[in-house]
Design goal:
Length: 284
Amino acid sequence: MQRPPHPLLAGFIKTVWFSAPAPGAAARAPAREHVMPTGLMHLVFRLDGPAVRIFKGAADSTGLQLGHAVVGGARAGFYAKEVAEPGPAVGMQLLPGAAQALLGLPADELAGRHVRLEDLWGSSATLMREQLQAAPTPEARLFTFEALLLQRLAGSPARAVHPAIAHALRQLDAGMRVEEAVACSGYSHRQFIRLFSQAIGLPPKLYGRVQRFQKALSLMQVTPAARGGTPSTPLSLALVAMEAGYSDQPHFNREFREFSGVTPEQYRLARPVAANHVAVPTPA
């Protein structure tokens, strides 16, 4: 279940979601998946089952156990996560600027990191998880989640992100070059990079590369039939690379592997149910 947030949270949150195993679902053998970078931060509560565990690389057989309430900073590469026993979870994607308002830190201090929410919120993170566990339905859990976040935002400024950065994000998404966005901002290049990184967690050029990668992932889910044609096969990787804005196929292949940890062909063969989560082999 995924939906837009409560209107009062719309300036801070992109989506809220709840997931739970199907009734009667059995525990799975330990497995791993690569979680792709989106350019956004996320906040997750696991309400039952094992704590979140991530791995440094393919050779890491132990991993790092983070806990049941975790903040993930914006990143420019995948991370490997354990997926095993099914359990309910609730979470959200944070918009630029939300880190300062919700967590009390600029986004660049959390970039590329996972942090236990208890380390930021103390005992209130544990209390929040207990309140989410007590909610009787998925809808009630999302409503409770939003209500608790609104309490934390009481007294925060109405605008989560600096106006110049909000304007620059719209310009960059429309295809403007970083240098042009800096010139339009009224700030020096150094000041602009600092403000942008504090709001998003990544510098603008790196953020743009992640968004191009995300566009490629979206195009890889598209078929010619979805565009009014007849074939049901996916778009060719060459066409994906061109439409996403890569200079050539080797450029696309290199950057895809850098951000995802797999090649475009491996990603497509894996047939991920969710575009940003792809199963990978577990080391022996």
